[in-house]
Design a protein that fits this description.
Layout: H1 3-57, H2 68-93, H3 99-130, H4 141-152, H5 163-187, H6 194-227, H7 241-252, H8 261-289
């Protein structure tokens, strides 16, 4: 074969491989975004209905304060969650690790990445929830975000306050959420009846979201304390994630770390189950049709 032909053939193969990877990443992003879009359309329904439970969990009065940040964050957040999970899973597969370990570690990596993306939205949301002004006096979401950046900056005292707690919350949640779901799903046989297969996945997804919510809630409580108003004005009591958890445990007891567990399970158990199903069915449809 002529050297130029060999070189051209290699370039063609590399181009096709790149296109294939981009196509797969596109499918993963759109499928993950679809779960976010569903949660945003359900989101406007789900977040509007369930957001008060999140506010109750943080002991604040205005039920719909801070609702815009989670709605705006939902689609990119879910796209990042699923895209990075698939990419970490692919990278880890080269290490010849057991599939159970791959699913779990990829979930952890996905959660940490998601935490970085979502934390600024969380800071704005919790700060708005903490405002006790009347609704007419409350600043808009964008105005409040601008005010945080202007006065505190982008760092760990400003728009990324509580980042370590958010990383813990999302890292632990996704590690269990993806690890449990895909490991258990591989153990329980596939059902040939489409309706029963749907219920099989739904049940495993429901358990995944519920167990993950139960395990990661101390990080969630710590995040709310760090990002929310401090007990004494001008004195920062809750600074870092682990120290906040220790302080809560020492001063308020073990069960204080699980405040708000019921509304969280009510929100993330069913929501997490359906999100996985939307992603899986959307991804399969995209692979077949695009």
């Amino acid at each position: 074969m002529h050297p130029h032909q060999s070189h051209d053939s290699y370039q063609l193969k590399m181009t096709m491989k790149s296109q294939s990877l981009l196509r797969e990443a596109f499918h993963q992003t759109v499928a993950g975004g679809s779960a976010g879009v569903w949660l945003s359309s359900k989101g406007l329904v789900e977040i509007c209905l369930m957001h008060p439970l999140d506010v109750v969990k943080t002991r604040i009065l205005g039920f719909y304060k801070g609702i815009l940040p989670p709605i705006l964050a939902e689609t990119p957040k879910r796209a990042v969650k699923f895209l990075t999970f698939e990419q970490y899973k692919k990278i880890l597969s080269y290490a010849s690790l057991p599939s159970g370990v791959i699913f779990t570690v990829a979930g952890l990596g996905s959660g940490l990445t998601e935490g970085v993306v979502v934390n600024p939205f969380e800071v704005v949301k919790v700060s708005l929830q903490a405002q006790r002004n009347s609704f007419s006096e409350q600043p808009s979401t964008f105005a409040y975000a601008h005010e945080i950046i202007r006065s505190q900056g982008f760092g760990l005292r400003g728009l990324n306050k509580g980042l370590t707690a958010t990383l813990g919350r999302h890292g632990v949640f996704n590690m269990i959420y993806f690890g449990f779901y895909f490991n258990v799903k591989s153990i329980i046989p596939v059902n040939e009846d489409p309706a029963m297969e749907f219920l099989r996945k739904l049940g495993i997804g429901l358990l995944s979201g519920t167990i993950a919510s139960c395990v990661n809630i101390p990080f969630d409580v710590a995040k709310s304390r760090i990002q929310g108003p401090q007990p004494k004005s001008g004195v920062i009591k809750y600074k870092t994630c682990i120290n906040t958890i220790r302080t809560i445990y020492r001063e308020e007891g073990f069960f204080a770390l699980y405040k708000g567990l019921l509304p969280k399970i009510m929100r993330l158990g069913p929501g997490g189950a359906v999100m996985l199903l939307v992603y899986e069915y959307s991804f399969a449809w995209l692979q077949e049709n695009f």
